[in-house]
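Mods, move this if it's the wrong board.
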Amino acid sequence: MYLQIVERSFYTAREDEIISGRTTDIYFIRTVEVLKAAGLGNVKVRAEFHVTSLPKGYKWAIFTGLKEVLNLVEKAKLPITIYAMPEGTLFFEDEPLMIIEGRYVDFAIYETTILGILRHYTSISTKAARLKKLAGNKLCIFFGARVVHPAIQPMADRAAYIGGCDGVAGVLGAELLGKKPIGTMPHALMIIFKQVMNDHTLAWIWFDKVMPNDVPRYILVDTFYDEREETLMALNLLKDKLQGIRLDTPGSRRGKMDKIVKEIKWTLKILNQDKVKIIVSGGIDENEIMKLKDSVDIFGIGTAIAFPPSVDISMDIVEIFDEKLEKWIPITKRGKMPGAKQVYRCPDEMRDEVTLLEDKPSMKCRDGSEPKPLLKKYVENGRIIEQIPSDDEIRNYVLTQLEKVEL
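Not the wrong board. Structure tokens:
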């Protein structure tokens, strides 16, 4: 007997399927069935979300995705309690990020979904934060809409933005963030004008004619001729209207990109056109930013953020409530630390201490202040009780922490 094949245009989950728990691994459904059949459906646990090992070379990561998890819990009406770090918190290895407290059978089938949200969000936001940290006061724009499935473009845009990116190119993602999408022009525009009208520079003129005044005149200058020559052509045509030029390849047939950028920047300077910004995209990652950040004004980054190293968040039961003793009993699998935990931080030092959830820290901050607990209660019996910050507030929180750490 064959399973019925569900026909749909895109292999993506609908919101109602996510909320109902359909986006899970089958063994969680079977686990719930077994527990209920064995009379263990009322067992209460505390399950901890944490990272035991960060990607190679990473000293920290950025915890994001919490807003979507909270929305899921409330819409699914899960009778659980959640403690978590605020979204956007910079964290280190072996620290609890979130704790779910409640009957295991009430949230077991959502482990897959919650981990998927937190892992994907955190991985993208962490990479965005690393690149923004390297770029400093230079702008980082997320150009990753074409890198991911369209169904998750807005999620990737939000994860990149709250992780530190200064803007996004995706139309829907920007709309949901309450921002204007940022972009320039594709090579296709130049190629069509070149073939049909025998002059690709007419694309720049028509772009200026058609686009409203609030759209920056950022011109692509690496389609047919030398990049410096095309830059001068754009200057001659658009004059003071030219606001920026974009180079879309990290390397060139005639040399290294950093040399090309310096050549163009030098030329603009001697022409008293320092106001023209230089935008570089195409294969930009950490090494490229290090080489180019002294000369480039804006980085367009896609693949490096959209497909980052995975920050492997896992969930483990760390305590079970003993009904007879009426207390929580620390227990977990081998290789993990039993007991629900709290993280205390001296914010100015970004120095942490992990304690049991109800314990107080032993460390003192150097300025004499008391360390602050990071995990706070966000959900009580399925209801969100803590206000969720805006996306801009989360991003600013991330940037403030980045000033206090090194890569």
